[in-house]
Amino acid sequence: MMATDIDLPGLAASHDIITLGMRADDARRHLHGASTTFVRVADVAAGPGGAIQVPPSAGEVRIVGVPASRAAAVARVGEVKAAAGGYPLSGFSLSDLEALSAREQVTLRALLEELCAAGLELVAEAPFDQLGDPRRAIEEVNIAGLALARLTIGTLPEGDVVDGLKQIVALQRDVAVLRSFAPLPRRVSPVLPSTGYDDVKRVALARLVVDNIPSIQVDWALYGPKLAQVALTMGADDLDGVSAEDDAGEGRRRAPLEEIRRNIRAAGLEPIERNGRYELTGR
Amino acid sequence: MNLEQIVATVRAGGRIDAGQALRLYHEAPTALLGRLADGIRARKHPDRVVTYIIDRNVNYTNVCVARCAFCAFYRPVGSAEGYVLGFDELYRKIDETIAVGGVQLLLQGGHNPDLPLTWYEDLFRNIKARYPSFKLHALSPPEVIHLSRLSNLPVPAVLSRLIAAGMDSVPGGGAEILVDRVRKLLHCHGKASADEWLDVMRHAHRAGLRTTATMMYGTVETDEERIEHMLRLRELQDDTAGFTAFIAWSYQPDHTELAGNEATGVDYLRTLALSRIVLDNFDNVQASWVTQGGKVGQLSLAYGANDMGSVMIEENVVRAAGASYCMDEVEIVRNIEDAGFTAERRNMHYERLGGPIFRERAVPRMRELATARADGDTSVPDELKHYPARSRQGKALRVVQ
Ligand code: SF4
Question: For residue A230, which residues of chain B lie inside 8 Å, CB to CB?
């Protein structure tokens, strides 16, 4: 069923998450069948000189945190690139880079080109609600020779959820490079955290409304295995943020790879590992 | 019957047998299971009220001779980390519970050979003398069996003495999976076989007590055994109608001898939904947010649950095995209302007590569950010296006291 045939405002307003989830699952299966991708990520801090560990199982090395300056960002990319070799290297939030370029009075494109020249392959995320001009910023990523790992939402937007998601559809119509969208906010209020209903509803509506971005993604580390797994049955098809720590690591009883595969299979789906470039790397 | 016929039977309010339950569990998509369970929930509770209780889950001792393979909570007799709570500590906990609107203690503990039946009787009597309307939801069937063995009295006699002292109802803990093959593998057959567990509940129901029933799944049991567990409860409920509610939770593996993996969130929702379908003679099914977290706990309300369980205030057993979720009354009510239900407080008998307490008066927020004892507190309650110890270590301690 096409999303246009569905009473989206009605579903969004309803408490019937099972019907909503079933609709979203149909849409997800239409696009991906039972295939569920995941990526194991090795995080490294943004500060130059910090420790860099790249476990062989990593599908992506990601520089996380806000760079102190343009020079520090470029230096850190160089360091991590030297350690990461051929592993897909992502880093930074596009909104932080936007702010940095303004602060240092260079164009965003110039900054992105410098990072690309230093070895960065992907900008780790573009938080839609925190970018001054999302379309332009994402186009600059492209023009600079970089890719964008995913479109995210920084904080839970107020207002009508379907209208908000339609803005994402319009953005993709303009830029056409978005590979995945993570509809659950990256920052959650500790005082008023979102509920399970809020989260699965948002994931399901994202799948139904945002029909021009291939993947709906949930962050495994941020949202936890239980919620992330349920989200897979209600529209999500990709899991980000799986730890790349070695399976044989000291004292770990549940290796991340075994754990994620078990959870995906227990949801009746088929796990497929990918890397940061969205290349499938294993089953 | 094929899947469609089974689904039609459930939709028509019919009862399904073991084979049909298994087929449903294996073949029905999660959403369909949820729909069927939600339909039953709606038939039994058409007013869309979801209840919860404000009580405190107190573990009076962690010393236990049962040594279940799945338990991270117990300490062996003589352990430096073993504790017994004193009567005064328990009164303090009751005062704190009443302050946030609580109505009962859920009182369970290890099988401590140094606590004779008279200790429990005195405790219950003292509590009832101080707090006449406060309820004691106390001592799961294996604890009752332990006391029966310790005091050489039959189970009905132990129950009647505890009832006379003030026990109001029996929590359904220690059921795990009511299949002896599983119980032997989990080293919990010794504390109570499946028949013994059910017998205690039968006696309690006959004595006029209401009880709950639980299931801890996700260890070594097969799907067939999970269903057998539900059917054994259904059978007893047909006989006595004494169970008020069913609560399923997943085995928490951290720090246990058994180790292994925890069943997933989707497993939980499927098992919960199946229990609502199979246990057609149970009015109430609880969500286990303590093991699943608030989010999946809330989603349980779409998969057959009509009760959010307890505000808890304190929790020791599940926390010892790795899960540490906390929701105070404000959070529980927010989750219930956000899912489109009306929240009401209840007591153990599922009698409704009114809307949220925090809307009637100021109640302190609770961001963390309390523990039985502060870390490093090794004090031994003074009154213990009045009770004969059975263990060598217990006897030595009494001499020192
Ligand atoms: S589950 Fe209960 S009976 Fe078994 S070891 Fe733990 S405290 Fe003792």
Answer: 265-266, 269, 296, 299
What is the per-residue DSSP string for B315-347?
--HHHHTT------HHHHHHHHHHTT-EEEEE-
Report the gap between the CA of B167 and the closest CA in chain A (Å): 37
**Comparing A251 with A24, which gets the higher pLDDT?**
A24
Report the residue among B67, B143, B252 best suited for mutation to probe ligand 1: largest number of ligand atoms under 8 A from its CB: B67
Q: Is the CB of B242 under 6 A from ligand 1?
A: no
Q: How far is the CA of B317 from the centre of ligand 1 (A)?
A: 9
Locate the domains of chain B by residue range. Answer: 47-373
Instruction: Tell me the CATH number at A124.
Output: 3.20.20.70
Task: Please report, for residues A164, A165, B7, B79, B286, the alpha-carbon distance to residue A159 in angstroms, rounded to integers and kept in the order given.
Answer: 7, 11, 39, 57, 33
Query: Which chain A residue's Cα is nearest to B27?
Result: A268
User: Taking the model in full, what pTM does it have?
Assistant: 0.93
β-pairing verdict for B210-217 and B55-59: unpaired
3-state helix, strand, coil in chain B (%, to 5): 45, 15, 40
pLDDT value of position A251: 46
Instruction: List the one residue out of B330, B325, B285 whose CA is nearest residue B308.
Output: B285
Residue A115 Cα, gap to closest chain B Cα (Å): 39
Residue A252: band (very low, low, confident or very high) from pLDDT cuts 50, 70, 90: very low
Global ipTM: 0.91
Please state, in angstroms and rounded to a whole number, the distance separating the CA atoms of residues B128 and B257.
38
Residue-wise pLDDT for A69-120, tens only, equals 999 999 999 999 999 989 999 999 999 999 999 999 999 999 999 999 999 9
CB-based contact, A233 to chain B, within 8 Å: yes
Q: Is residue A181 part of a domain?
A: yes
The residue contributing the CA closest to ligand 1 atom 1 is B71
List the single residue in A21, A224, A266 with the smallest CB-CB distance to B31.
A21
Q: Note down the domain range covering A132.
A: 8-187+194-273
Per the structure, the count of domains in chain A is 1
**Tokens standing for B179?**
């299949």
Q: Which regions in chain B score pLDDT beneath 50?
A: none
Q: Would you state the structure tokens that stand for residue B250, as one six-digit string?
A: 């997943």
Q: With H, G, I as helix, E, B as strand and everything else as coil, classify residue B208.
A: coil
* B203 backbone φψ class: left, alpha, beta (φ>0; ψ -120 to 50): alpha
Asked if residue A2 belongs to a domain, the reply is no
B64 within ligand 1 shell (Cβ under 6 A): yes
Does the residue A19 lie in any domain?
A: yes
CATH number, domain B47-373, options 3.20.20.70, 1.10.10.10, 1.10.3120.10, 1.20.1270.10? 3.20.20.70
Q: How far is A157 from chain B (nearest CA, A)?
A: 17
Q: Are strands A180-181 and A35-45 parallel, antiparallel or unpaired?
A: unpaired
* Residue A283 within a domain: no
